[in-house]
Amino acid sequence: MKRFARYLVFYSALIGIWFLLAKLKVWPPYVFPTPQGVLESLWAGFSDHSFWIAIGVSMKRMLLGYSLSVILGMVLGLGVASNKFLEQTVGGLLVSLQSLPSICWLPLAVLWFGLTEKAILFVVVMGSLLSVTIAMETGRQQMPKIYGMAGRNLGARGFPLFWYVLLPASLPYIVSGLKQGWAFAWRSLISGEMIFVSLGLGQMLMMGRDLNDMSLVIAVMILIVAIGYIVDGLVFRTIERRLQQKWGLTPAT
Amino acid sequence: MPHPSAETKASAKVSLQGISLSYKANGGTHLLALEDINLKVNPGEFVCVVGPSGCGKSTLLHLIAGLQQPSSGKVLIDDKAVEGPGTDRILIFQELGLFPWLTVGGNVEFGMKMKEISKAERQEKIQYYLRLVHLGKFKDSYIHQLSGGMRQRVALARALATEPDVLLMDEPFAALDAQTRDLLHDELERIWAETGRTIIFVTHNVREAVRLGDRVVLFTFRPGRVKREFLIGLPRPRHLEDVAVAKTAREILDDLREEINRSLEAEYSHEAVR
């Protein structure tokens, strides 16, 4: 409750200062909108369904791209983790590629796929693939060896050993990587949509710029942050906590 | 491939022939963990292996389980050479290695699922083996909700459910409190008598070994060799506090102490390789 009070004080102060600065008209409203203006934009966006549509389109792309990169990343990560040669060569390459902002893949994607959904999907996949792969690889290494041994001892080998033992055993170790992958994918998606105009939240943001509608820009930014926070902070953190508790990594409450 | 040599008795369930294992230590030197182990275990026999820590007794179980390969020598089960893990012999690890993502029932089911036993039969056996270890009501619990002794029982049920001929147990009761351990000794003895499994039980606790075993095999400190074997002819059921148990344990301890002293010397000298 004390934490909640702190949040309340902080955010009321923030909005209060914002409100005052806007009221004093230090900057013109098209540069610095009022809180009410942003609120109205949010309201308008939701009531004429344009926000819902944008969220829907963006989330669909996210889910598709992210699931694709999780599947690919798991296969890649496991491959890399299971072979010393691959680990030293491909593993190193993956880490160095991670320093490339994923939006840098967009020109390549457009040349390969044209101005299609595939190009955006490609950027989203590239945004999170590396984190998922690296997480999977380190997860395999951090996972207690006992589970693999116990599985083999009980007669599991090949794919069943992977599916029923190694994968669940490494989950608590890869979930933070999955979370990071989601955050990267989300960033890539929004950047992609901003440049590559075809619906979605990123395009909404650019539309605000084109219309000189600063309230809309801020409103969409708030939306992007909110969605990011909900998925990252609520969904992933809950999964993470549950996993750690069940896997006995933290004392049960 | 298996050519049973002349001295191999056809009756041995587990037969270790000239098992040696060496590791490559950090400095490139070879560390001999096990040296020329020869041991025969009869069907239905309860054999306890004792020795100081670092004598390779846990490693020996891994070799029998097929999780590791010996540098030389071979492990025979029913005169057939072991080439990898198999559900005819199940190892209960010291750390148990129960799967936290599965329920108690799921853990017990696991080995049977891998053996592709039908679902109906699996359900039946889960019930049977959980009842055998007195965990009938805990089928849907998760591992993190159980106490140490209960986890131990789950591991036992999980191992028994694949119906192995040989049960390999690696210091299973080391981390338990005395009361729970006593209780589990009784239960293990009962289950052993009921199921007729062959058990190889590794422990550093000599009294426990005498309490449970038909035979106690004493290992030397590194490299692990069979130092002596003791046939325990005491009538069952035995208790840890029995005078006869204490007396036999005392005899074995005298031999063991020498090895413990060697292990301590190694630990305090800078030559110790861990």
What does this 3D model show about the protein?
Chain A has helices spanning 2-23, 35-47, 50-82, 84-97, 105-113, 117-142, 145-153, 158-195, 201-210, 214-246. Chain A has 253 residues and is mainly α. The relative contact order of chain A is 0.12. In chain B, the strands form 2 sheets. Chain B has a 6-stranded mixed β-sheet with strand order 6-7-8-3-9-10, sandwiched between helices. Chain B has a 4-stranded antiparallel β-sheet with strand order 2-1-4-5, with helices on one face. Chain B starts with 13 loop residues before the first strand and ends in a 6-residue tail after the last helix. The A-B interface holds A 144, 146-147, 149-157, 160, 164-165, 168-169, 171, 245-248, 252 and B 65, 67, 85-87, 90-91, 93, 95-101, 110-111, 113-115, 142-145, 158, 162.
Largest sheet features of chain B: 6 strands, mixed
Cα-atom radius of gyration of chain B? 19 Å
- CATH-level-2 architecture of the largest domain in chain B: 3-Layer(aba) Sandwich
Q: Span between N and C termini of chain A?
A: 19 Å
Which class of secondary structure composition applies to the elements of chain A? mainly alpha
Percent of sequence in beta strands of chain B: 15-25%
Structural class of chain B: alpha/beta
pLDDT < 50 runs, ≥5 residues of chain A: none
Number of domains of chain A: 2
Series of secondary-structure elements of chain B, N-terminal to C-terminal:
EEEHEEEHHHEHEHEEH
Count of helical stretches of chain A: 10
Q: What's the Cα radius of gyration of chain A?
A: 22 Å
Number of domains of chain B: 2
Helix content of chain B: 25-40%
Tally of DSSP helical segments of chain B = 7
In percent, how helical is the residue content of chain A? over 70%
End-to-end separation of chain B in angstroms reads 36 Å
- DSSP summary, beta strand count of chain A: 0
Spatial shape of chain A: globular
By CATH, the architecture of the largest domain in chain A is named Orthogonal Bundle
Largest interface, C-beta closer than 8 angstroms, per-chain residues: A-B, 23 and 26 residues
